[in-house]
Amino acid sequence: MTWPAHPSWFARSTLRLALGCALMMAAAPGGCAPGPQPPARPSRSESGPEAPADDRAASKPDQEAPPALDRKPPGPAPEGMVWVPGGTFWMGADDPSMSDARPVHEVTVDGFWMDRTEVTNRQFARFVAATGYVTVAERKPDPKDFPGAPPENLVPGSLVFTPPAGEVSFEDPLIWWRYVPGASWRHPEGPETTIEGKDHYPVVQVCWDDAMAYARWAGKRLPTEAEWECAARGGKVRTRYVWGDTLRPDGTWPANIWQGHFPDRNSAADGFARTAPVASFPPNGYGLFDMAGNVWEWCADWYRPGYEVSPDHNPQGPSSSYDPHEPGVAKRVQRGGSFLCSDQYCTRYLPGARGKGSPDSGASHVGFRCALSPRPEPPDGRRAP
Ligand SMILES: [Ca+2]
């Protein structure tokens, strides 16, 4: 199906809807805007900025895990959740292409429960069946949000990764992202596709608003960005990957990412060309699955580049959003990368890397998981500092 795009509508919707590596690269080829860098905070590593994985693996001395608060779970685990011990960890990324994840700094979070896996189609279907909730992608776009768009173009739908036939420039992600009318969590790749038989796949085409609605229904909340990274690191200290410092330990692929030439040739050497059923790969040190790759995961925080101003204890993120690559469009943080990430093009499946997206925008590589504090939640679903 060819999308009869009005140029302004297409560009606006795509830039707002396409999330994660691909369109971030569109806004700033080569990664985040270079810009002046803040002075780095003191690093625990004596070797300075992180070296390539293989070098780090060979040279980095063993490091003890930081002291953890709340190491003991406060009680039996809620169904499908694991306890993430609180403690202090190094948050952020030194990678030169990830200036929005600097400075690497020490952060302390209290212990919390986290979903063992990304929210699945079956779990989301239960929520929809119980509440009648209609996701944003299933609603007709409001003309007020897309001034100038022809009314016939304002139809429900969402963005779908659509690989080109051959090599293309990395400069224009609009080549491999397409707004598909009828794409939704029920039809992730478009109206002709289905989630039938995919109960255990992560739900996708859900925006931040949808994720928040699910979390409230489930009596949970979205994790803060700091909690998400603490959980992703699984007790490891400043390793390049959530599983350690070697991309392919024992020659295996430890996560659902991209192999081959992006975006036209995906060898699926890890077994999956698109999303994988949750828990298809080994868990991290806390027993959490798919904290790298598979689908991006929404966090509670507003997005702003950098961590220059951030509390060091239970940070909740900034009070408002600013994305210098798309001023005027408020965005929430995403973490974890997706099946589209690779070391060749986009390494944002690394534990300190960041993604971002408009709260009303989903895509075929974006999902979420929930967190839960061991004490009652405030009405707005976010924990007080
Ligand atoms: Ca894959």
The helicity comes to: 10-25%
Mean pLDDT: 83
Distance between the termini: 48 Å
What small molecules accompany the polymer chains? calcium ion
In DSSP terms, counting alpha (H) and pi (I) runs of 4 or more, how many helices? 6
If classified by CATH, what would the architecture be? Alpha-Beta Complex
- How many domains? The number is 1
Element-level helix/strand string = HHHEEEEHEEHHEEEEEEE
- What integer value in Å does the Rg equal? 20 Å
Structural class: alpha+beta
CATH topology: paralog of FGE (formylglycine-generating enzyme)
Largest sheet: 4 strands, mixed
Description:
The chain is 15% helix and 13% strand. 46% of the residues are buried. By secondary structure, the protein is α+β, with helices and mostly antiparallel strands. The strands form five sheets. Strands 11-10-9-12 form a four-stranded mixed beta sheet. Strands 1-4-13 form a three-stranded antiparallel beta sheet. It is globular. It has six helices and 13 strands. The chain has a single domain, classed as paralog of FGE (formylglycine-generating enzyme). The site of calcium ion has 7 residues, from loops.
Task: Offer a concise description of the structure.
The protein has 385 residues and is of the alpha+beta class. It contains six helices and 13 strands.
Give keywords.
disordered N terminus; alpha+beta; 385 residues; paralog of FGE (formylglycine-generating enzyme); four-stranded mixed sheet; binds calcium ion
